[in-house]
Amino acid sequence: TPSYTCFWGVTEHDTTHFLTMARVFVYGTLKKGQPNYKHMINTAKGLAKFQGRGRTVEKYPLVIAGKYNIPYMLNIPGTGHHIAGEIYSVDEQMLQFLDEFEGCPDMYQRTLMRIQVVEWEGKGGTGEADGVLECFVYSTATYPPEWVGLPYYDSYDSSGKHGLSYVLRESRE
Known about the structure:
Blueprint: E1 12-14, E2 19-26, H1 37-40, E3 48-56, E4 62-65, E5 70-73, E6 84-90, H2 92-101, E7 109-120, E8 132-139
Parallel strand pairs: 2-8
Antiparallel strand pairs: 1-2, 2-6, 3-6, 3-7, 4-5, 7-8
């Protein structure tokens, strides 16, 4: 089995907070309006600042899997769809919380992916001439092989047409 390490890498200097920030792209239950968004705005877990919306430059399979109907981006570049999501600037404390929350490195692995900016709210533009940013993304290479045969989505909504209700951690057995 391959081993994965979560690491601290891409940074941007946020002059308002004088902190080192990392860019994270979220595509599932951590997005605005989704069941786990509450964690992104809980300052006790760290700082997360919404920057904009984007989609993966490469195509990936986004599946809803397991008995809790969890969204997973399978790390199979070139297969599936350009996945839509949100870009956040997070501090080290929030990044560490997200690593734990995402079960990194066992369930998900945090890797750098290229994200095409679709809509930007951050100050001073994207900082990239072509509107493509490198962001940390929690995807998985440690999935059961049968997940490859599940339907692929281009975006996730816990109350979407798929009819697969996400089960919150506090409700799991």
